[in-house]
Amino acid sequence: MWPKGHRGFKSHPFRQLETCMKNKKIFYGIAILFLIGLSLFVLNNYQIQVQERPDKPIKLPPQISGRCGIENCHGLNITCGPNVPETCDLMYRVGDNCRQYASCQKTNGQCQLVKTKKFDECKSCVGKCEQNFKNDPINFFQCENKCTE
């Protein structure tokens, strides 16, 4: 039937071309499915979200923002500068009542303490109360309370 050395119908040139085309279709099909799967994975796991600017303003460092305020929370040794605490504890300390008569202001580009006459009077009164009632906290606080009246 077939001549010697011939492989039969399978070796026909058109048959090889058909097989090659089927293999290419399978390869392309697999490649497309792989790309679709990869894009679904990326879209599912790496979503790009557009966010609006937060309502809270951007906070600049104190040296740049030019803030000026009282830097310490308690006592009569008041310091002025850009590092103003956001909150202070509610614990009362000696001389805290007198602090209401002092503030910080920018003068000629410098943050400076501005004391009223009432602050100086209150501070000296508290100093006298400390001397007179060193070992008697109840009378000390009663005396100190009179300093702001």
Keywords for this entry:
single chain; 149 residues; alpha+beta; two-stranded antiparallel ribbon; 4 helices
Class based on secondary structure composition and strand pairing: alpha+beta
In this structure, how is the largest beta sheet organized? 2 strands, antiparallel
H and E string: HHEEEEHH
Give the number of helices. 4
Share of β-strand residues:
5-15%
Structural write-up:
With 149 residues, the chain is an alpha+beta fold. It folds into two domains: 14-45; 62-146, no CATH class. Helices cover 42% and strands 11% of the residues. A hairpin with a 2-residue loop joins strand 3 (102-107) and strand 4. The chain is rod-shaped and about 130 Å long. The mean pLDDT is 80.
Brief overview, please?
The chain contains four helices and four strands.
Question: What's the structural blueprint in terms of helices and strands?
Answer:
Layout: H1 13-45, H2 62-65, E1 69-70, E2 80-81, E3 102-107, E4 110-115, H3 117-132, H4 137-146
Antiparallel strand pairs: 1-2, 3-4
